[in-house]
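Input structure tokens:
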């Protein structure tokens, strides 16, 4: 059991009498520290770095580790903690709103993929029972890989990310039924008749475990954290956070369910707690370390001897199973009205087998449903599919995704019947504020957004909004870009914003363009693309925060307002000066001239602010 293994491993190293037993820990940390930054630097991502490091130090590399399964069992707690953090971000009301995606979209994908993969297994010559078990293991996606990729891309809270999380949650719910099916398919023996529990009993125990966890979450956890918070013992709060996660995982495993599901439910129950952010901060370091350890273990577990003996079957199996699963995922995503781009990305991201396959195949092998050879081959196939996924995502992002960008709309663009002098692209939290201000001042607007829900909501509210992908030049031309006086680009896709600005400046040189910018570097890019002004999306709010901070430190309100406004103008002037020396393709401040200008502008700003604090007259730059 994972928690026992974790305690034993930690205890063994703490009780070690010689440093040799610490070599393993040092080796793991060194492999991660070397490989992950290197792989991220060359654009291959952290997951592939962990996998490569595990393969290098494992039993088929430098042989510094000989038991990768032990590491995987302990490190699966990283997946558990990841699901707890995801649960903290989902309030019960939000989870209830996702119920159709969880049970509808999730069940559709799992059933269709399982059927398709079973057919693939039968085509390879296996009996239907063996083919089904292999398909059932492969159909469950790797939560660790998908969550890590979504987290790195900041897509966990996007609509597409929420759909993926919903499907993963449904897959976690399948653990009990699949294990019961494996037991049902096992050859009947006297021992199995005695040992195997009936399905109704397994389901009953699982429901009781869920009910107990929900009851504890509603009536015990918040009072517990209130008592601990009053004690002001920081380390005790951390211990309590770990207790909640591991205790929920233990309860779910005792009930025959997924430990990750238990942690997720605990997170959801605490999502509205005042201690939510504290819990997330306490768990995050453990989550990151253990999740990295999990990927290292997966890399170590790739048995190259098995691959070498059966390389033809394994390579064909990986390609066939991943291709079949990807096709099903793409079709299901399109049926759910995802764009071609989103559907293709989801198909690539979720085409691999998952960590639960190891558990299912081990149970099937122990009960005689599959033999040792099939077990070894399928384990190698799942591991290889997990290794290939990060590389496939890189290939998709570099060569496939750009070709789908022009046809990304899941619905046809609306026909725009009127052309106004002011165009606004994007009606999210940023664009809505801009449009409200302009509309209340009496300006007629042409508003375009590519989120059907946002378009429907704005039209219902009475603000005429058109559905369409503004990255398509023909749509902008239809909307009247060539004659418009002002274009406001308020979308939160930095690269698409640059393409829109460049096209607008090309077809209408006299148009005024004001664009939303993500950060300073994106501000430079926006200016270089042809925008007249770039508004950093958090800059104004941050300056207001600075003003309030000065007041809290004792500065009079009028003086704080004056200093804040001066800083605002000086910083805007500084960004404009740096934008002039910015070169396309520059990812960071890696240009000596830009660094020189930055230091010069910062020195000017500090001198001016200090002079203003002394009451001297300061020449303000143009605001």
């Amino acid at each position: 059991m994972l928690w026992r293994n974790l305690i034993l491993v930690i205890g063994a190293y703490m009780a070690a009498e010689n440093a040799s037993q610490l070599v393993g820990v040092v080796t793991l940390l060194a492999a991660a520290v070397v490989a992950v930054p290197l792989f991220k630097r060359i654009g291959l991502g952290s997951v592939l770095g962990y996998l490569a490091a595990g393969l290098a130090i494992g039993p088929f590399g430098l042989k510094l580790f000989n038991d990768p399964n032990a590491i995987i069992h302990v490190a699966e707690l990283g997946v558990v903690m990841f699901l707890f953090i995801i649960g903290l971000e989902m309030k019960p009301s939000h989870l209830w709103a996702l119920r159709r995606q969880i049970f509808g979209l999730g069940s559709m994908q799992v059933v269709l993929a399982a059927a398709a993969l079973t057919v693939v297994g039968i085509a390879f010559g296996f009996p239907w029972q063996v083919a089904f078990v292999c398909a059932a293991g492969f159909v469950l996606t790797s939560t660790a890989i998908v969550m890590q990729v979504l987290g790195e891309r900041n897509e966990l809270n996007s609509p597409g990310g929420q759909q993926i999380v919903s499907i993963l949650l449904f897959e976690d719910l399948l653990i009990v039924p699949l294990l019961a099916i494996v037991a049902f398919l096992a050859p009947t023996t006297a021992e199995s008749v005695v040992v195997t529990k009936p399905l109704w009993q397994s389901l009953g125990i699982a429901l009781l475990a869920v009910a107990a966890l929900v009851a504890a979450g509603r009536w015990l956890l918040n009072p517990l954290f209130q008592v601990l918070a009053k004690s002001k013992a920081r380390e005790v709060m951390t211990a309590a956070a770990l207790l909640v996660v591991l205790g929920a995982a233990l309860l779910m495993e005792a009930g025959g369910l997924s430990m990750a599901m238990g942690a997720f439910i605990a997170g959801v129950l605490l999502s509205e707690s005042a201690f939510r952010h504290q819990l997330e901060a306490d768990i995050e370091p453990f989550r990151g370390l253990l999740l990295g350890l999990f990927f290292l273990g997966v890399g170590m577990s790739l048995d190259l001897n098995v691959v070498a003996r059966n390389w033809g079957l394994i390579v064909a199996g990986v390609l066939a199973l991943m291709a079949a699963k990807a096709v099903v995922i793409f079709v299901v995503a399109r049926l759910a009205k995802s764009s071609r781009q989103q559907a293709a990305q989801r198909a690539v991201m979720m085409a691999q087998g998952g960590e639960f396959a190891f558990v299912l195949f081990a149970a099937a092998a122990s009960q005689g449903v599959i033999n040792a050879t099939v077990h070894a081959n399928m384990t190698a196939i799942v591991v290889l599919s997990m290794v290939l996924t990060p590389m496939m995502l890189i290939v998709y992002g570099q060569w496939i995704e750009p070709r789908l960008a022009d046809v990304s709309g899941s619905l046809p663009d609306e026909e725009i019947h009127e052309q106004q002098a002011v165009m606004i692209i994007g009606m999210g939290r940023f664009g809505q504020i801009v449009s409200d201000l302009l509309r209340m001042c009496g300006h007629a607007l042409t508003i375009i957004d590519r989120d059907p829900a946002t378009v429907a909501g704005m039209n219902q509210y009475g603000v005429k909004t058109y559905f369409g992908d503004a990255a398509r030049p023909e749509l902008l031309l239809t909307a009247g870009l060539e004659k418009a006086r002002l274009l406001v680009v308020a979308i939160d896709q930095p690269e698409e914003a640059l393409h829109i600005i460049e096209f607008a400046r090309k077809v209408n040189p006299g148009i005024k363009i004001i664009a939303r910018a993500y950060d300073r570097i994106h501000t430079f890019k926006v200016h270089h693309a042809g925008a007249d002004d770039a508004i950093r999306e958090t800059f104004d709010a941050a300056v207001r925060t600075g003003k309030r901070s000065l007041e809290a430190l004792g500065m009079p309100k009028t003086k704080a307002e004056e200093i804040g406004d001066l800083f605002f103008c000086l910083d805007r002037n500084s960004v404009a000066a740096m934008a002039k020396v910015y070169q396309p393709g520059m990812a960071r401040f890696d240009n000596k001239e830009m660094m020189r200008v930055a230091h010069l502008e910062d020195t000017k700003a500090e001198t001016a602010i200090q002079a203003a604090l002394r009451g001297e007259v300061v020449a303000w730059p143009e605001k």
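Confidence is low (pLDDT under 50) at residues 1-18, 190-195, 406-410. Residues 372-404 form the longest helix (33 residues).
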